[in-house]
Amino acid sequence: MQTSPIKLTDVIYNAANQSFEACVTVYGETGARKYACAIEAPITMSFEDAAKGLRTQALRRHAKRGGLHSQMRRFAPQQRAPRSRFDPVRWLETLISGEQRNAA
């Protein structure tokens, strides 16, 4: 089994849910994916054990390629067709000349 590099950030203990929560980034061949992970555990659990549980949860999600994740991709904007520069004076002249043509 090949392991991917993992980074845990924003590890907190949520006392309301009695769980450790973290943003876990898994680096793979296709880039980095971030998973919001949480494990139910007492506050007395050691940080190393909590981190191990969070890593395991993230790797399971990453292997399934399912669930909610975040991924950064480079966006290449598409080239737009060139337009002529807006000339307000010419636009006003067109409006004025158009009104005279339609006058009774």
TrEMBL record:
Residues 62-82 are annotated as: Disordered. This is Orotidine 5-phosphate decarboxylase. It comes from Sulfitobacter mediterraneus.
